[in-house]
Amino acid sequence: MANVDVIVVGAGVAGLVTADRVRAAGRSVVVLEARDRVGGRTLTEVVPGVKDLSVDAGATWVAPDQQHVRTELARFGLETTPQAGPGDALASLRGKARRYTGAARALDPVTTADVGQAMMRFAAAAEHVDVVAPWRGDHATKYDAQTFESWIRRTCVTSKGRDYFRLLCEAVLATEPQNVSLLHMLFVARSGGGLSHLVTTGGGAQDARVVGGMQQLAQFLAAGLGRWVRLQEPVTTIMHDADGVSVHSESGATTAHRVVVTVPPALATSIEYLPGLPHDRTQLVQRMPHGSVVKCHAVYSRPFWHDFALSGEMTTDEGPGKVVFDTSPPGSGYGVLTVLVEGDDALRLGARGEARARTAVLRGLAEHLGPRAMDPLAFVSRDWTAEEWTRGCFGAQLPPGAWTQVGSALRVPVGRIHWAGAETAERWCGYVDGAVSSGERAAAEVLAALP
Amino acid sequence: MANVDVIVVGAGVAGLVTADRVRAAGRSVVVLEARDRVGGRTLTEVVPGVKDLSVDAGATWVAPDQQHVRTELARFGLETTPQAGPGDALASLRGKARRYTGAARALDPVTTADVGQAMMRFAAAAEHVDVVAPWRGDHATKYDAQTFESWIRRTCVTSKGRDYFRLLCEAVLATEPQNVSLLHMLFVARSGGGLSHLVTTGGGAQDARVVGGMQQLAQFLAAGLGRWVRLQEPVTTIMHDADGVSVHSESGATTAHRVVVTVPPALATSIEYLPGLPHDRTQLVQRMPHGSVVKCHAVYSRPFWHDFALSGEMTTDEGPGKVVFDTSPPGSGYGVLTVLVEGDDALRLGARGEARARTAVLRGLAEHLGPRAMDPLAFVSRDWTAEEWTRGCFGAQLPPGAWTQVGSALRVPVGRIHWAGAETAERWCGYVDGAVSSGERAAAEVLAALP
């Protein structure tokens, strides 16, 4: 006999949305979460020593065309504030910094032409990719047989053009272009409305932030579920057969008709499944490594970069912090810079310890904003690779061969086991919006299957 | 206080050699094994219904230049029998089968020329690879940024030449060339004495088999360790600090000065480490997926292929069983064909169930050996992807980017945690010989560090 109708593994956004929808349909649900908090890769942290200030240490931005997450935010009265602010952005490639405004990048004419022709080729290739089933189609095998780096080398004719695409890959995936297949990059771009859309503030993927922080979404969802969200219960084993599922954690077993596993595939492999999972699934979870991110926040008494008519948005090919945004809370007076340290930079920075990481990141800011950048009121950083229950951000990035060989196993339920999470989304794969839609899909699956 | 000096996780060949050497040095050791048997990826199975016949369902062959495993076999009086037998081998590419003898492959002159020039280029590139540290060197980054498939497409000028290298990749790694970096393939080849050496019987990697089966090595090693090998104890958690380690399984905790983890990296990630592991290690274990193998044995009353002057060794580009060897035990009278189903073929065959797999494999044999092949005395198969405690064979194959970004973490101890296993070997990486040498290395590491 089942304790509940549905068990959800993981109290990130995908898991909480799943549970919320199951409850809304009048069925019973329990969410088992390994951590002592909800939110998964969304995490809003209070900045120590700075009154009333919190920062998003995890997922931050929403796009105008992310209807799933926008609807969910609106439901709880959560408002957004535009990312784009006054002043110029900065782009620094090979030691040369240029200002720019709007969506245009400050590249010299030759590089602009090179990036432009490559972008057109990329967009044309992306047209061949099926977002619902990227493993399908005439071109899929060819695109999946090569790295994105191979494509960059073949397609760009200038070294700065190649650098630009490498930087773009790190900014979008938090991993280097040799680590993913061309197909994966094409899929992610198409899944999120195009490569340029993914790196754009006004109107793009970084269009707006959630006032008060993104984690509130998870907190409101969890509050609605009350005691049915059980923290600090890492799931060790899932037993499943024709009669039901039995999900084991240290505190014992919970039984249900269905289970929805919402943790990233690389973590889902730590759960023991009895009986074991199908072959393609067993392979797939071995081939979805995470990118690496250390997300840093430097807090200043005011956004002093406005003195130079700079917006605080910066992109540089010199690490460790290659992507910077001004995330000052509107009306707070404080100046906050979010520095994204990604890929190899993140792996190396994380290994160096917090104090040295702070110095390295602040020096990078000072390079463009002057010595005032070296002396923030506060500095906080979150190293997602060090998180036992995440092991890298933003999410899973597929190496060559994985999508076409075993990608079709990503969302297919295994008997009574269903899968959700940002990685399983067709649209906005890897984003909070994808997490929300994946939870809705998984909830619909289990509700249709419940007796 | 430590219960024992050293804990070894995993009773495969690497783990048992580690424990054997630690005991030989007069120190105490316990081996914790998840399965109800020793041997890991070595497994000698009795064939049901056929008197006195057993087959190697796992690792099988030894090469003349594999001194580590040869010494170990000799120690227990285990003998080998040559793989190469009388008769011609068969190679079938694109529907055309040709006989050949010795090391020469039966390719048409144009394909031979193409494969020849590509082999020379491959060998020249392999010269640049450092087997001790493949992540080092001027060429490493370039080789690691592309798939082996990209290299094949660029280097071979004929479609049959490309097919040949793809087949060779599957035979050596049990995965397709788009799934690994060029650097990985170069490293594996160099680690085992060259690409041709890896696919050669007489004098090469398939030079000889162990009479009575390869698993005996593990069984003899385990017998010497007696009750210090504890079966059915999957390790869940390893706690480690400056004072020692505490290794947890269902039956409780065992403490020691040092622990040697010998399970493949993709499985080592299922163990919880407290505190967590360094970043490069956390990344690396997410990027060492296993190949896929279903190893089949068809047993006949006699080796009837000798009637056609065929040796039973066959290579074909038509699946599911692309690589076939005669492994008839000398003097037994039986004719035994070992059919290796690898990579994508293995994933698909394994999903089809045993009965249909049998038919598909036997049909492949009958294609070249006639209808007698369809009616064996017995047919056994072992699907390594379905094994909870292996999850794919022969072993880990690294996708692009992994070696150069995080490969240096492969063997580096983390405090009191040491690493062994075939994947950690410099010479004969992924082979039983590499498992033996890795155990010797790990034992030397912990012995030098013990108080």
Task: Give the overall shape of chain A.
Answer: globular
Low-confidence stretches of chain A: none
CATH architecture of the largest domain in chain A: 3-Layer(bba) Sandwich
Distance between the termini of chain A: 12 Å
In this structure, how is the largest beta sheet of chain A organized? 8 strands, mixed
Mean pLDDT across the residues of chain A is: 95
How would you describe the oligomerization state of the chains in this entry?
homodimer
Number of strands of chain A: 20
- How many separate helices of chain A? 15
CATH topology of the largest domain in chain A: FAD/NAD(P)-binding domain
Radius of gyration of chain A: 22 Å
The total domain count of chain A is 3
**For the largest interface in this structure, which chains are involved and how many residues does each contribute?**
A-B, 48 and 48 residues
CATH class identity of the largest domain in chain A: Alpha Beta
Estimated structural class of chain A: alpha/beta
How large a portion of the residues of chain A is in β-strands, by DSSP E? 15-25%
Instruction: Tell me the name of the CATH homologous superfamily of the largest domain in chain A.
Output: FAD/NAD(P)-binding domain
- Give the fraction of residues assigned to helices of chain A: 25-40%
